[in-house]
Write a structure and sequence with these properties.
Layout: H1 2-7, H2 9-13, H3 35-73, H4 78-90
Helix pairs in contact: 3-4
Length: 92
């Protein structure tokens, strides 16, 4: 039947094959090397951590400046303004 279909006009318009003629090609990719992605992931994690530390540091600096300005507005001298951070640093 396949031979008859190949000879007909249908065989010229489309390909005709049998199950026996179909073979599965072996896949050439047997494993995926994800090793190089580990370095990229580590670099991304380091970048996110660095940005987090920078934002936290900036917040602490801005908060200390605000606290110092409030204390100075209330009449505290330089020694009294420095007393808070010094006590926090020594209390660990």
């Amino acid at each position: 039947m396949a031979t008859d279909l190949r000879r007909s006009s249908f065989g010229r318009a489309a390909s005709v094959s049998t199950i026996a003629a179909q073979t599965r090609e072996a896949r050439s990719l047997t494993a995926l090397n994800l090793g190089p992605l580990a370095a990229l992931e580590a670099a991304g994690a380091a970048l996110v951590a660095a940005i987090g530390v920078a934002v936290l540091g900036a917040f602490i600096v801005l908060e200390r400046r605000r606290e110092g300005a409030i204390l100075e507005a209330l009449g505290a001298d330089a020694r009294q303004v420095r007393a808070g951070p010094v006590q926090e640093g020594c209390s660990s």
